[in-house]
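Feature request, filed as a ticket because there's no other form

It would be nice if the structure record came with a short human-readable summary line next to the tokens. Right now we just get the raw output. Example of a typical job, pasted below so the devs can see what we mean:
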Amino acid sequence: MIVLQILVSIFVLIVLGKLFKQWHNEKITLANFLLWCLLWLAVLLVFWQPDLTSYLANFLGIGRGADLIIYLAILVIVYLVFRVFVRLQKLEKDLTKLIRDEAIKNAEKR
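Raw output as currently delivered:
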């Protein structure tokens, strides 16, 4: 298990480095940077302290720690899909408005 923990730790450090670079280049907001950092640090914590998930699962009334992780992962994925859907809808609306405005400008020139 220690080899996997080391590999995951290296991977998480690389991801955190890339996140910092994205934030430093202003490609993501500070809030998103902090959120993703917390998520990846939680992954690191779970890999180094796997019993922690069992403790939290028992505290929440869930049978196993692995079940807790799966439930949380599903919640995060559904939330992220929702956020992507909302942004896509906004982009479609903005694009439609832009195309409509350009069409009206071109029609007025003729």
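Something like this underneath would help us a lot:
The chain has a mean pLDDT of 92.
DSSP finds four helices and no strands in the chain.
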